[in-house]
Amino acid sequence: MPTPPADGDIREPKQENVFLFVTNLIGYTRIVFAVASLYYMPLHPRTCSLLYSISCLLDALDGAAARRLDQSTRFGAVLDMITDRCTTTCLLVFLASAFPRWSIIFQVLISLDYSSHYIHMYATLAMGGGRQSHKRIDENRPWAMRLYYSNTYVLFTVCALNELFFIALYLLSFSSPTLVPSLLVDQDPTRPQTWSSPWSAGAMEMARANKIDSAVPWVLLATSSVFMLFKQYVNVVQLVEASKWLVQGDMEIRRKERADQKRTS
Length: 265
Known about the structure:
Phosphatidylinositol synthase 1 (CDP-alcohol phosphatidyltransferase1); transferase
């Protein structure tokens, strides 16, 4: 029969370094690929799209590793959400400059994305308890939220194709005179286009002109458009639902305060 360890032999369990969890290392790698894609974004559509897509696909590997290695953490969830929001926002900012006529649409999409996720996470922390995940949706929530958050395959597919829609728009900014008429190259060599700065809007548009063929981007745009619209619908629904949840909590707090005031008076 083994003898119990003496008091002096009792050791504290080894402290884990959450920052170095495999899942979080994948998250840092996502950031590196995202930043690299931003560097190539102005003039190199193929390289940028490849790096950006790798960053997005690592999101799925991140979640799978968290479940398999039992390394799901609140820090990792926040890191993942921040990376998603920031990378998408950077791409939408570029699209707003590439399609100035439609910039208000991209500005609305950025605002909706940030506000819906922020209020959803805040409501989950404030009303659902500190240990409840923002991805754990009750049965009384709308079907779109339950479908989106409860099934990892649906979540990944919708997020991936939502990003694919914006990547397709990004590629079309290099190839489609239909969306960007200024991409039509002036065929008259006696009329050179000059700008005071090679980084001006006009010079950048001319530098993007006809870099790639537009056929594949149009197919990608058509394929992913339904998923992009569904993602925006989910954003609107979770914004409304989280607002209602917070208001419900406010009403309960106010009722409790009034009841306490009546008892003390």
